[in-house]
Amino acid sequence: MGMEREIKLALPPAQVQAATQWFVARAGKDGQAIRLVNLYFDTPQLTLASSKSALRLRQTPDGWLQTFKTVGHATNGLHSRHEWELPVADAKLDIDALLRVCDEPAAAAALQQAAPSLIELFRTNFTRTLWLLEVDGARIEAAIDQGNVLAEVGGETRRAPISEIELELKSGDEAALHTLAAELGQHIAGLAPDDISKAQRGYQLRAGE
Predict the structure, then answer these.
(1) Any idea what the CATH number is for the domain that residue 173 is in?
(2) What's the whole-model pTM score?
(3) Can you list the positions of beta strands (E) in the chain?
(4) What is the mean pLDDT of residues 179-197?
(5) How many domains does the chain have?
């Protein structure tokens, strides 16, 4: 099990270029842009959402990954949650493999209960531009995400934009996340802490919120 710690900031679309330029200057190089296709699964009764967990299948340039995570806690844009991630051969979930590594009994029980009835609920398709930064001895992966949340409901395609910055701690002290976020805030106008994950936005979109 890993503990994911990241700060998520809502990025005004008009500030994407400024944020990109700031990261390029901070890192000393252009970011790596990758296209990510993400499929989220739950039961029609939303068993996983009710247990405060989320199940995702992600296509990356290197192949497919399945991820099971808890909602965890989010305060002032800082998200802390348990996460289990495994590669899969193709666009197909391997629930047994996730159950073997999931060491949170309540989350594992919810996943096992949901497994027979899982369906795809929504997608998040976006381009992620990445930089790896050193801040006070810590390593932070900085990302600008631009794209959409998509949900098919009653034959209608619902869509909501994604425009955000994620600062994920890879090693070192969590305080470095706040230091980097403060630096960003001094140079990029309109940034705001975002406590809502992409998965939560997908559920909201399906519910018509």
Answers:
(1) 2.40.320.10
(2) 0.90
(3) 2-10, 32-42, 53-60, 63-70, 73-75, 78-88, 119-135, 138-153, 156-171, 192-193
(4) 94
(5) 1
